[in-house]
Each structure stands twice: as structure tokens, then as C-alpha cells.
Amino acid sequence: MATIKDVAAEAGVSVATVSRVLNGKGYVHEETLMRVREAIEKLNYSPNEVARSLFKRESKLVGLLLPDITNPFFPELARGVEDELQKQGFRLLFGNSDEDPEKEKAYIDTFLQNQVVGLISATQAFSQLNDERPAIPTVLLDRTHEGSYTVYADGIEGGRIVARELVNRGSHNITVLKGPGHIQPVQDRFLGAVEVLASSNVNFQVIQMASLTYEEAEQRAKELFSQYPDTDGIFASNDITAAAVLHEALRIGKSIPDDVQIIGFDDIPMSRLLFPALSTIRQPVYEMGQQAAQLLLKLIKKEQVIEQNIQLPVSFIERNTTRKVKRNG
Amino acid sequence: MATIKDVAAEAGVSVATVSRVLNGKGYVHEETLMRVREAIEKLNYSPNEVARSLFKRESKLVGLLLPDITNPFFPELARGVEDELQKQGFRLLFGNSDEDPEKEKAYIDTFLQNQVVGLISATQAFSQLNDERPAIPTVLLDRTHEGSYTVYADGIEGGRIVARELVNRGSHNITVLKGPGHIQPVQDRFLGAVEVLASSNVNFQVIQMASLTYEEAEQRAKELFSQYPDTDGIFASNDITAAAVLHEALRIGKSIPDDVQIIGFDDIPMSRLLFPALSTIRQPVYEMGQQAAQLLLKLIKKEQVIEQNIQLPVSFIERNTTRKVKRNG
After folding, report:
1. Same domain, A162 and A278
2. In which domain, by residue range, is B141 found?
3. Between A286 and A145, whose confidence is greater?
4. Contacts of B277 in chain A (CB under 8 A)
5. Quick check: B56 pLDDT over 70?
6. Would the CB atoms of A75 and B75 count as touching at under 8 Å?
7. What is any Pfam family matched here (chains A, B) (predicted)?
8. Is B321 part of any domain?
9. B43 phi and psi, to 5 degrees?
10. DSSP B64-91
11. Which residue of B has its CA nearest to A69?
12. Mutate which: A62, A91, A266, vs B, most B CBs within 10 A
């Protein structure tokens, strides 16, 4: 049986060169490549492995699908993924699909043409592709779907915390700005909040939003105070919406948090620079990205995976859009 | 001389299949690939072109180097690049170098290993690589460097506008928070401002910042008002810094814009949600990304390029951190 040394001798090159050809890495002159291939064929050196190496280079590329990187929740998520992949020599191919299924499919197609070895998706559209999903290792990030590998934060508990904090700090007439129902983590935080509100002795109302964008946030914030002028506690579903609500409340002369308490969700970097600084629920965004990358790399390397669904905890960040409570008496 | 039809006949496959093999596009079974290659060799069909197609696939990948996508200026820049590339079937490989030259080189190396056909860099470290730059089409974005292809906004004029607006709206004691001097567009906005301030009848002072990050912005904002309690006009160099300054001013009881006027730079999406909404200089960020992608694609396709350096205009966005002036009497 021929060895790599035999191939090198036959081709008149070093073992290192043969190795480069086999692994498809580093620079090899075309003529050398031809010579090595001829030697491999002549000596019948492990032909299947060779064919694989020569014609199906294993890439070190991973595809990342996001809804929209200009939403300030996603850059930190992407950095977590990228930094973790980079440590292990993998690189990111990257696309924003705007949750448009056609764009989503186009990105997946070109990711596959560029031979990505794995995929991380933070889009809802991807979760719903079902049979059309590519047959490569895939992790859903900030999204959940039955039977998938997933990394996400505990939205239900996050929603519960918001409702509890608003009630405990004295709000009696609470407004929940509810994000799009088809996005599971957004739905979860709503369900958690309603679970607590329903069992509390407070009034509450729900405003449905079609998106969690800047534009809609500004519009809904205006509607909110004309529709519910007496609301004294607001769960804003994400920090952008909370910023818009805070802006509108101050504009119409409300005192924050005395007249109205506001709690956001995400803890984007800008939240602590708002004035008053925003009380919110912190999702461990960067860590979510890292964990998704770690899980994907395990799948790519066919290592054992113990947890198929990784849920990370959230926490309440108390700043100045909520009233102070005395703890322990 | 053999034709593609001869190759197809010899290999017992369709012309389309041979074409797929030659172009390295679409799915071809390994055995078929072998047969086509054998036929090509046997008939001696345009061997150099073939070798090139088989072993050096032309990718449709472009590398994008950013300092840090979590700085809210960059996501929109990246979207502009991506959306334009996508229209023409190109995809983005993407890396954040944190302006670390080692990380920068590591990214460039792996971009090249993955056969990117062009590069867009928004990092300063890249501008300074000089001889170590890769020999592929490259465009600098939001950065300038002699002899390079560049797309950037008119920072000098931006700086002039800020100084003029502060002075015309009544500030007499102006503080300039100056970003890192080695970043050319940041230096430009400073130079533009100083040019106007120096010829105006006002006092001004300069605070040097080592970065334009959230952390430093918060720290400098606190120092600013203890060091210069009587300042009545602030040019904050970017919107994050402006947000930190606004926060601190309100925290210590200043009335904005009556006591202090504040102008930022960039017009990130969050700026209009601050309260009072931030007056700032708008850079056409998304358009800058698009134009960089268009320029790069021209270079890749060896089309004629008329402008090597594309400078886009900036504009003053008047919101509520500056006083109102009566126009035309």
C-alpha cells in the first residue's frame, strides 16, 4: 500500500507539498499539483480521500443569517459568533435577509455554493423553512424550533420579571407593547408578562406591534399616550421601543419614573446613555453568539453534544426609569 | 483542435455538464467530474484555462474589514455594502479587527485563502499596511490613504458646519471632544471645526479622546463639566459621545439647549430618540457602503473607473439640542 512518502518521491516534491495538495490549503503551483495528482493516481494512494480533498475542499466557512444588522441587538450577537469562530480558525459568510423568505433562500444557496460547513440562523424565516433546510450542521440563535439545535435566552422568565418589577414598584395601569407574535422569543416575553399580570391586582392593556423597528416604535409611542393617557407602567418589548416611549413621555411632560415607569428588553449599549437611564432586561447577547458558535463547531466536528437546546438566563438591570423599592423591609 | 462538444462526447455527458465543470459552478458528481477531466486531458482541450477553472475557482466572495460592528456607525455601512454586492451576486466575508494589526493580517490571510476577489476595508490599520496589502482590488471605506481607491464623507465640511452652527446659535465658550488623531475622517472633522472656531470671536477648548467608545464617552462627559463648568456649546465628535454628554448635562441639572448646545456626528438611528433629540451631522452611511461596493465591483470587472476618490456630502440635522435661529430676519 502506497504512503504519502511514496507519492512525494514519485512526484519529486516534499511530503509537505503533497500534504498541502491533499488538504487543499496553502499555495501549490499548478504544475506541481498536476504532478502530485498523477503520482497519487499511479500509486493508487487512498483514492477516495484524495478525490474528496481535490474536488471538495473542506472550507472553514460558516454562514450567518441575520434579520437586519442595523437593529442594535444583532451586532453584538454577530461579534459573539465571529470571535468564537475566529479562535478556531473559522470565518463568517454573512447575510441580512430582512425576514424575506426569497432573500433567505438566495443567501442559503450562495452559502452552499461557497461550501460553508455550517450555518447559524437568527431569522424566523429560516425556522419555518422545514424540508427546504440545507443538510449541513445548523444552529438556531435567538430563535427556537422543534427538533433543531438552538441557543436562546429565557424570554418567558424575562417577561415575568418585567411584570413583577412594574407591579412591585407601584404601577396599577400597565401597558404592554407586544412585538410580532410569529417571533418566538418576542412571544415568550409577552406570555411571561401576561402570566404575572393576569394573577396580579392591576389593570393592563396590550398594543400589538407589527415590527420592533425605530419607525414603528416612534409611531406607537405617540398612539400609546393618546389612547391610554393614565397608564403608569410600560413594558416596551425591546429597548428601541422603550427609547421611543421614553422620548414621547418626556415630550408630553410626564415625569419619569414618578408618573410612568418604563422597562425595556435587551440592554443594548445605548440604553444606559438615555436620560433617565433605561431599566431593562439584559439578554447575554454576546455569550449567546459564542455559545451558538461553540455548539455549531461541535456539530461540524461530530463531537458529542449533550444539550440540543441551550437556554441562557436573563437579568433585571435596574436603572432610573423605574422607582426605587426598599428591599427587606 | 478539440471543442467543448468533443469533450462532452468523449466523457459521455452533456455540454452543459462540461460547462459546469469548467466554470466550477453547480453540482457535478465526482465520477462525472473525473470523466470530464480525463476527456479534457485526452483531447488536450485548452489545458491552461481548464486547469485554472478546475483548481482555482473564481469565487464571488468579497472581504469586508471593520473596526467593530457593535459601534452603531458600522452596521448601516455594512448593509450598504452587502445590499449592493448582493444585487450583483457577490457575497460578504466579514471580520472585525478592533484596529489590531495582528488580527487584521490574520483576517486578510484567511480571506485570501478563501479566494476573495476583492476587499473593502473601513479600518485604519489596513490603510497603514502599505507593502503588506494583498494584491487584489481594494477600496477603503470611511478611510483615506494616498494612492488608494476610497469612499468617504466630507469630514472637514462637517466640522466647519458644527462650529458655524454652535457660534451662530449663540455659544461663546465651546468645548470640542476630539477623537483619535490617527483616524483620518475623525481628524478631518476636528480640523474643519477648529478652522472656523479660530476665526470666530469665541473661546474654545479641546479634550482629546483615545477612542470613540461608550466607555470613554461616559468618562469624558463627566470630566468635561467638572473641568469646564461654564461651557455652553459642545462638539461631540460622534453621536455616542454626544449621547453621553447629553446624559451627563441633564444629570447635573443643565437645561438643553438653553444652558448648553450639543452637536454630534454620524446621525445614528438612536439619535432622534434621545430627549431632547440630538442635533447632528448626517453622514450618508448606507450610501457610502453602496458606493464602495459599486467601485469595488468595477475594479474586479476591470471596468473603467473615473473617480478614484469618492467624497460624499454631509448635512446638518437640526433637532433639539441646539437653539432655534430666525432665518432671513
Report:
1. yes
2. 61-153+287-313
3. A286
4. 247
5. no
6. yes
7. LacI
8. no
9. -90, -5
10. EEES-TTSTTHHHHHHHHHHHHHHTT-E
11. B75
12. A91
Judgement on whether residues A178 and A201 belong to the same structural domain of the protein: yes
Q: Is residue B226 part of a domain?
A: yes
B251 touches chain A (CB under 8 A): yes
What's A254-305 look like in SS3? CCCCCCCEEECCECCHHHHHCCCCCEEEECCHHHHHHHHHHHHHHHHCCCCC
Domain count, chain A: 3
d(CA A283, CA A267): 7
Q: Which residues of B touch A27 (CB under 8 A)?
A: none
B246 touches chain A (CB under 8 A): yes
Assess whether B118 and B186 both reside in one domain: no
Q: How far is A69 from chain B (nearest CA, A)?
A: 6
Task: State the average pLDDT over residues A43-53.
Answer: 54
Shortest alpha-carbon distance between residue A246 and chain B (Å): 8
State the CATH number of the domain containing residue B75: 3.40.50.2300
ipTM for the predicted complex comes to 0.81
If contacts are CB pairs under 8 Å, which of residues 196-215 in chain A contact chain B?
214
Q: Specify whether A145 is located in the same domain as A176.
A: no
Q: Which residue is it, cell 421601543?
A: A241
pLDDT single digits (tens) A177-228 = 999 988 889 999 999 999 999 999 999 999 999 988 899 999 999 999 999 9
Asked if residue A237 lies in contact with residue A178, where contact means CB atoms within 8 angstroms, the answer is yes
Interface A-B, measured as beta-carbon pairs within 8 A, has a size of: 134
> Is there a single domain that holds both residue A246 and residue A162?
yes
Residue A42 lies in a domain: yes
Q: Is B215 exposed, middle or buried (0-12, 13-18, 19+ CB in 10 A)?
A: exposed
Give domain status of residue B228, yes or no: yes
What residues of B are in contact with residue A270 (Cβ under 8 Å)? 72, 240, 243, 270
Which region holds residue B263: left if phi is over 0, alpha if psi is between -120 and 50, else beta?
Answer: beta
pLDDT tens digits for range B182-206: 888 999 999 999 999 999 999 999 9
A23 & A85 share domain: no
Which CATH number fits the domain that encloses residue B32?
Answer: 1.10.260.40
Mutation to test the B interface, candidates A250, A275, A320, most B Cβ within 10 Å: A275
Are residues A161 and A278 both part of a single domain?
yes
Phi and psi at A60, nearest 5°, equal -115, 40
Q: Which of residues 89-148 of A touch B (CB under 8 A)?
A: 89, 91-96, 106-107, 110-111, 113-114
